[in-house]
Design brief:
mainly beta; globular; single chain; 216 residues; nine-stranded antiparallel β-sheet
């Protein structure tokens, strides 16, 4: 084999390896980043730093556009408590954990000094596909999806090239069934249905690297 042929073969092998690594741990329901959010920030290895102070409500995205079990993506205080009023979200990246804190602006327009506090240890998340993916937890979806169904909710954090933060929340509804035969109010038998996966994205504008020291 000549040198050019070796170089070509090596390049093909490297390309295949890159494709395999990019696909590792990903699935068809990973929830693509909305195109109007802009491009994600990239690093050669690992995930871009998501730490900093961000503004809520989102500058893009919003509340659930489809039918989500909780009607709004953050209505149950996960991944952190937010409301429709102006708020701040502080993503505090530490060596062994990531802490999410929020505070709202009261009626007089001044920010509250008290921060909410939700922590996620390194065992609760991983860097995959250039974003931080947090372990899902079980939620009760029987009221919206019927008895016997199961549900989980998780979220991802992804830094964008313009400095903003994309936050995606995902709900997976499982053990859904449909009647095998139905007429009027009567039905016979059950047919398993595929899991339903619902993503909702919010893009938060970056305000600063971190809040003032006395706000901690």
């Amino acid at each position: 084999m000549t040198m050019p042929s070796r170089a070509l073969a090596g390049g093909v092998a490297l390309s295949c390896l890159c494709v395999a690594l990019a696909a590792c741990g990903r699935s068809a329901d990973d929830g693509p980043l909305p195109s109007d959010f802009g491009r994600p920030a990239r690093r050669l290895f690992g995930c871009a730093d998501v730490g900093g102070l961000y503004r809520w409500p989102p500058v893009a995205g919003e509340f659930a556009s489809g039918f989500a079990s909780n009607r709004r993506p953050w209505a149950d205080g996960y991944p952190a408590y937010v409301d429709r009023v102006p708020m701040q979200l502080w993503v505090d990246v530490q060596s062994s954990r990531i802490v999410l804190r929020t505070r709202r602006a009261p009626a007089n327009g001044r920010l509250a000094r008290q921060w909410g506090y939700v922590e996620h240890y390194v065992t609760d998340y991983r860097c995959t596909g250039g974003r931080l993916e947090f372990k899902p937890h079980e939620i009760d979806v029987s009221r919206d999806w019927g008895r016997g169904t199961t549900g989980t909710k998780g979220f991802v954090l992804q830094r964008l090239k313009d400095g903003a933060l994309a936050i995606g929340t995902v709900e997976r509804i499982g053990h859904r069934t449909a009647p095998a035969v139905q007429w009027g109010d009567q039905s016979v038998g059950e047919i398993p249905q595929a899991d339903r996966v619902m993503w909702t994205w919010s893009k938060l504008e970056r305000i600063a690297d971190a809040p003032e020291q006395d706000a901690r």
